[in-house]
Amino acid sequence: MAQNLIAFFAxxxxxGKSTLVKECVAEYPRVIVxxxxxxxxxxEQTLEGAIQGLLAVSDKRRFxxxxxxxxxxxxxRVLRVVYDIPDSLxxxxxxxxxxxxxxxxxxxxxxxxxxxxxxxxxFYVARRPAEIHRDxxxxxxxxxxFVQHEPTDIEYLxxxxxxxxxLLPRLPKYAVMVSGDIEKAPLAVLERIASTPENFRxxxxxxxxxxxx
Length: 213
Hints:
The structure is a single chain. This protein is of the alpha/beta class. The chain has one domain (about 5-205): P-loop containing nucleotide triphosphate hydrolases (Rossmann fold, 3-Layer(aba) Sandwich). Helices cover about 30% and strands about 20% of the residues. It has an 8-stranded mixed sheet, with helices on both faces. Helix 2 links the parallel strand 2 and strand 3.
């Protein structure tokens, strides 16, 4: 891949968030997923087994390797290994499992700040934006959000998406609002418009969001 991309996906359970992320992931040849909740059908693993398996595929041109571990600290140890696997995409599902608004572990901070030097793209996925450390969204090239209703989440996103975040409670089901460098967005984010029901809308910084009244 020519350059790395950092993207943040926000949306409550059932919003379509995981489906959209999986579509975007399909465009990358080398993918590692911290699959905390088993969204990708992976059985729970031991830390040793997860790392051995990851190292076994890391030299392949194409691989998809979900990791499902019980303890957050084990997931962070996997991220230390991920940093040594260039030209890859790492997806962190349930990001709030690993960080908080006041705490960003060193393993995640290093990926966010220096992953571009190793062309490691990163997708961070969470239900509640306000539960995520600000550095993750501040460094994201793309912010993707489904409908939001909690005032704290809307206020959080308003600081990174601008005033249009106030329209998030009015987004139709399965609609997304996209903010940031839309030219770097995975094609699946754009192509999904043509393959979803009529009430699906994609918005970006160059046009006001379309909402149903």
